[in-house]
Amino acid sequence: MNRTSIRIAFVIVILAVAVTIVIGDLRRRAAARRLREAILAELQPVVLQNCTLKRFGSANDGGYLMCENLIEPLGAAYSYGVGSNDDWGCEVSRWYHVPVHEYDCFDPARPACNGGNLIFHNECIGDRTVERASRFFDTLENQMKKNGDAPESGRRVIVKIDIEGAEWDALLATSDELLSSIPQITFEMHGYDDPKILEVLRKLKRNFYLVNLHFNNWSCTSAAAPLPAWAYQTHWVNKRIGVLDPPRPCPHR
Description:
Blueprint: H1 3-42, E1 53-57, E2 63-67, E3 76-80, H2 87-96, E4 99-103, E5 117-121, E6 124-125, E7 130-132, E8 135-138, H3 140-146, E9 157-161, H4 167-172, H5 176-179, E10 184-190, H6 195-204, E11 208-215, E12 231-238
Parallel strand pairs: 3-4, 3-9, 4-5, 6-8, 9-10
Antiparallel strand pairs: 1-2, 7-8, 10-12, 11-12
């Protein structure tokens, strides 16, 4: 084989490799786009006939919409991811005179709440009982059991979770039986490119209605399209207590 033939063969090989890389990249992008479209399709809130939305906590970050008229009777609340303040937990505790169990293993600061009953736990919610880098993690089920709030206790609890992307594994590890016992769960969810997100959303929708969706302005990015942002607040109401109102248009807040 002469040099010209060798050069031609070399160019053909390089072109073939380049085309393979480009095609592979296009396929990955298309698959990622389909995932984001599927996530957005699941994030479609509905209207309930019997939900009066009220914001609990801060006016901005740290505040969450909940169905105020569906909260009572209330035995306890759980606040995951609190940092140096927990305005949501403080307001819930003071308004309903219940203990609020706070969990945060990354920020040891214990939020103050004049007139409220905040019980701080220096641990995080996770998908198993484990210690990582001197931080303790446990499941929602175990944490509720230790506090006497397991479903069989009959105590009615509400839950707020804002844990910077760790919510997906924690929720996948939570049984449908436990989730179905919780009247309302409010989240700040994070991410757009993990198949676990779709799995969790579909899991939640087996027992809950999504009644509020708010994409956080500070997290807007074109990389998440068609999602407008990578962080979004969601509120979920148990189908046992929520009454669907199909004729009304769905809210986007």
